[in-house]
Description:
Number of strands: 9
Number of helices: 7
Radius of gyration: 16 Å
Strand content: 15-25%
Shape: globular
Largest sheet: 5 strands, parallel
Strand order of the largest sheet: 2-7-1-8-9
Distance between the termini: 16 Å
Helix content: 40-55%
CATH class: Alpha Beta
CATH architecture: 3-Layer(aba) Sandwich
Amino acid sequence: MKGRLFVISGPSGSGKSTICKKLVDNNENIVLSVSATTRKPREQEKDGINYFFLTKEEFEKKIKENAFYEYALVFNNYYGTLKEKIDDKLEAGFDVILEIDVQGAMQMKEQNNEIVMIFIMPPSKEELLHRLTDRKTESSAEIELRTAIAIEEMSKKDKYDYIVVNDELEKAIKEVEDIINN
């Protein structure tokens, strides 16, 4: 049986990455799509595991080859979902989660109306700022930019099939798991 496709979006700092990781850890039939990006890897990130790290030239060549379901320029770096990687997993019967931004999610929805779209919301703007600051992975200028983009992304939450507020991590994970299992 062919797998199903899920999109999980939310602003940076909403907890979407943590939720996706727990879903994959707790469910052997769920896999997380690995996106391609031109941004530099963070210290703990590995190519092919966290992202497929490509040069700008490699990424733009793949755009010309129509190798992406969706792609976007975000924070001055490209991010995209490689068609081949998704299709292989779906054909093998896995449910696939795409953890992508709002722009990419809207592109995916245009191509496939069977996608289930889930938006992860932080409990408040104040908590979002606290989470972004606590990560200590971005400069204050980057945090300011991410906060502005987060506000814009949250204004599009109603375009999603489901909205899950991540005020308590285990509860949010259960809510998303219930959506996927229905």
